[in-house]
Amino acid sequence: MPERDVAPAPAALTEAGAADELARLADEIAAHDRRYFQDDAPSVSDADYDALKQRNAAIEALYPHLVRDNSPSLRVGAARAKTFSPVRHGVAMLSLDNAFSDADALEFDARVRRFLRLGETAVAYTAEPKIDGLSASLRYEEGVFVQGATRGDGQVGEDVTDNLGTLKEIPRRLAGRGWPRLIEVRGEVYLGHDDFAALNAAAAAAGQRTYANPRNAAAGSLRQIDAAVTAARPLRFFAYAWGAASEPFAESQWQALEAFKAWGFPVTPQAARVEGVEGLLGAYAALERLRPKLAFDIDGVVYKVDRLDWQGRLGFVSRSPRWAVARKFPAQQARTVLRGIDIQVGRTGAVTPVARLAPVTVGGVVVENATLHNADEIARKDVRIGDTVILQRAGDVIPQIVAVVLEDRPAHSVPFAFPIHCPCPLHTPLARETTASGAETVVRRCTGELACPFQRIEHLKHFVSRKAFDIEGLGDKQLRAFQQEGWIAEPADIFRLARDPERLAKLREREGHGETSVANLIAAIEARRTIPLERFIHGLGIRHVGEATALTMARSYGDAPAFLDAMDRVAARDPEAMADLDALDQVGGAVIDACAAFFGEAHNRRMVEALVAELTIEDAARARSDSAVAGKTVVFTGALERMTRDEAKAQAEALGAKVSSSVSKKTDIVVAGPGAGSKLKAAAELGLKVVSEDEWLAMVTA
Ligand code: IVH
Question: Less crowded by CB within 10 Å, the N or C end of the chain?
Answer without folding.
Answer: C
